[in-house]
Amino acid sequence: MAFAAFISPSGAWPLSVAAIVCMFLANTDKFSEISASTSGVSATIREAKDKIQDLNKLIEIMSEAQLFSLQAHGRIFDPEMLNRDHFFNRIIGIMKDAGIDDERILKIRKDNWDYFVKADYINSILGGSTIPHPLGPEYDHVRAEWKKLRNFYDQPSPAQVREFLVKVGEDDPKKLALMDALEKYCETLEHPDRELWKKRNKVKHIMIKNAALASPPQA
Length: 219
What we know:
Strand content: under 5%
Shape: elongated
Number of strands: 0
Oligomer: single chain
Distance between the termini: 72 Å
């Protein structure tokens, strides 16, 4: 089974390595009991504990890489989203079992998992890659703002996204529901509505309904 994990296309091999490490970590107290016997054994135990710290760092690195890989690969149209969540739970569990600090685990998941989730919410709320309508040049400045909000590498806050929806007069119920879900996710790191999350890509493009935003034609 361990060999199968190494060749699995799901990328599960880091989980097998980490599981072996966790079995070793679970028995460190037993090793410590021997330390009182001789100085040589005590030195060996100290060396082993140093190696354990190195292994914890390795688990962190593998977990970061695995979470990033799971999210970055075909997340938008992937029908196996629940399977991805299964691996997410296993990776987080392995880090906890290894004794990695909760704050460190939180940072790893926020940087390599939650960032992508928020990006997907924002992308759907803003209508994906379809530019806002109407298409006239009088709304070019609005579309420039929309494009800036879609920048994956400079992710806007939920407040900025909602402010844009209010500004353009967007009142589509599905978009507003996704907006609420994004805000809730940022607070709890949990999807408030799984069905809404799964159907997020079925939301239409942004409609600019605030005619006051139209720029006057240039002479």
